[in-house]
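Quick one: structure tokens for this chain, please?
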Amino acid sequence: MTCRSHPSRRRLGFTLIEACVAMWAMSITLMLGATLLLAAMRADQVGAATLRRLTWWAELADEFRADVGRAATAPDQLGELARGPSCLILRMSDGSHVVYRWHEEQLVRTVQSADGETRRAMPVGNWEASVEFARTDGDRPLLTLTVIESPNPGTPRRTAISAMLGGDVR
């Protein structure tokens, strides 16, 4: 008997199972990539919002501290306005007044001088924020502006900006 050799069969493609496994592996890889991309985008949004809030607070703190440092006194009243948790009145040495007032869900800084009156809304963060003012007693009171953020739901976050009337003494 002679041995016949069978020609070897060469595979010319993939089986259906091999193709399904490859597609499954690629879809898992794409899902992981998409998840990582979405997480990175969300982290970028949170970082940008935090930077924006810190920039607003830095601007507000710089201006508030400069105004309080230049002020000669912090009177209890100016016309119809009265000092309180929603209003802070500063009298400058040149006779002008700077008034910080929490009114209609925004912080308004008003400068009243002989030339007239200018108003400007100050950024305090998101729409869930509010502002309160406090003042200690004494010849050189400590004036504090507190920004209160009330996330829903969550515990309110308080950020206090304080300055000594007439500036720091060193």
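DSSP finds one helix and ten strands in the chain.
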